[in-house]
Amino acid sequence: MTLRITSFPGKNKTTIRVEGHFSAEDVEVLQKEIQLSAGPVHLDLSYLQSADAEGVRALKSLSARGTKLIDASAYISQLLDETAS
Question: How far is Cα 56 from Cα 13, in angstroms, rounded to an integer?
Fold first, then answer.
């Protein structure tokens, strides 16, 4: 499955749903979508099935810069919690 990115603008924040497999080739597309969003951004990871090393790195970087990661599965949460780069 490829990656699907859907944006849901709200009054005080934008929620961006990320679905499928997040890989290195998708990082720039997601970053552009976040840049185009108004207000704080919440990334809904509830439908994210997997991510390669570059995808995980990008998610960690986005989180460190203030993007809120929400509803990640146990598997995705474990990938994000791993300290290996």
Answer: 23
The secondary structure of the chain, three-state, reads CCCEEEEEECCCCEEEEEEEEECHHHHHHHHHHHHCCCCCEEEEEEEEEEECHHHHHHHHHHHHCCCEEECCCHHHHHHHHCCCC
pTM: 0.90
Convert the pLDDT of each residue in 38-83 to its tens digit. Answer: 889 999 999 999 999 999 999 999 999 999 999 999 999 999 998 5
Residue recorded with tokens 């810069």: 65
52 conformational bin, left if phi > 0, alpha if psi -120 to 50, beta if neither: beta
- Interstrand relation of 14-22 and 4-9 (parallel, antiparallel or unpaired): antiparallel
CATH class of 4-81: alpha beta
